[in-house]
Amino acid sequence: MMKRIAQAWALAAIVLLPNYIDLTSGDGDARMRVATPLTRIALAHLTDMAIVTGLFAGAIALLRKAPWWPRLRWAWIGLLPPLLFIRNLNLIPFHVPAAVIGAASAVWIGLLVLLGLRFPQAAPGLGRAGSALLAGFACFALVMTAQLVRATVWRPGPQAFAAPIPAPTATKPRLVWILFDELAYQQTFGSRDPSLHLPNFDRLRAESTLYTHVTPIAYRTTRAAPSLLLGRMVTNVAYAADNRYWVETRRDPHWARFDAGASLFGLAKREGVTTAIVGWYIAYCPVFAGLVTQCYWSNDDAQDRGPTSLDASYGEDVWFPLRMLAEQAFAPERAWADDARWGAEGHIASVKDLSWHAMKTLATSNADLIFLHLPTPHPPAFWNRRIAEFAIGGSYLDSLDYTDRLLGRMLTVLEAQPRWAATTLLVQGDHAWRTPMWRPLPGWSAEDERVSHGGAWDPRPVLMIHAAGQQAPHTVGAPTSLMYVHDFVAQQIQLLGGFKKSDLRNERPGRW
Asked: In the 3-class helix/strand/coil scheme, how is 438-489 assigned residue by residue?
């Protein structure tokens, strides 16, 4: 009995692995992206594992009593490895063609048939070996269960903090740095679709410097953002259970703790420059606590590899992954649609929340450096530009339309402030629209297919800089690494620090 339970537990752990991998992997992606405890989601995954274990154990116990069990067991041995492999395809860090999967499955089943026909005396031994191997995978299930239990007690660092900043003079310089996640040059400026109008990007472009050939520094936000902040190419990241942020860089492939003091915000702290962050996807407030003056970060998106949501109830987070598992087996088209809807709903929550906090920060913060990392136009699509409302089932062009509208609201707030004439505004993407990533996933629309010309990828992100007082457009056509942003921001911080020191020197005689 215990052996059969162990086998069922192992099967449940492997079948459900794509749902909970982010809570148990060494990268700690879920921790790095979530500003609230993961207790309810981890408990939901543990509940799913218990339910699936019970279903497997009960089904096997019933089937073993059937007279045709020996033949069914061989069919089970033949089909189980390919099915488990297909179920976990999205965990493999490279693309596996369908032809390879089909060929490998055919070879495996063919070998079993050949063994059963040519060497029938070896068949019982092979069955026992397979049964023992599956029971041995209970060790894997034990480790995964322990990791999920540990996730229930994990607590994140601060989600927000704010120290008061004295009101500045109208002439005091300021840098506003806006990172629109996945803002692509090609679709925004390079070859804009005739159906898309971006008046606010065009207005800002008319008084800014636009870089037309920016070379990206990373394919993923978790590498690009820390690279920009450190000034070194980050090649891998991890977020430990004790909320320590670890990185590997191109210069040093060994793991080292992220040196927040060596970042741009550390430089700002040393220069006496006040800073405000509104961020998404990266644990900004825990990482930069003690360096940044004001901070807020959040992420309401559904888990990258699991149909759970921070905004759902415990019951929904238990039921929906099981429902998706059944739909993927028996109604793939419905599963595809449900997955797209679930992802879009979470992303809509992120966009709404962070857009509101970004606008509030721009309107009320007196910080010398304001950094906004926002989840737009990052997929999944969340907006319908034809009715100007949040909606499921849109396209990247719809998301660009929302981004343009948000930029317009930001410009309206900034241009009405006395410091606008002394404000430098930097607008960028961290990477372009990653069509190879999104095309095979739920949420890819017919319009996405059309405007991307079948998923063709242009890697250039947007980089546009409005210098304080600039009134005419300028274009830089030379190849420019996105890492230029780090050097530019560092220079601006030093200028802001120099202004502050000069201002203090001017005030000193009056004080004394």
From this structure: HCCCCCCCHHHHHHCCCCCCCCCECEEEECCCCCCCEEECCCEECCHHHHHH
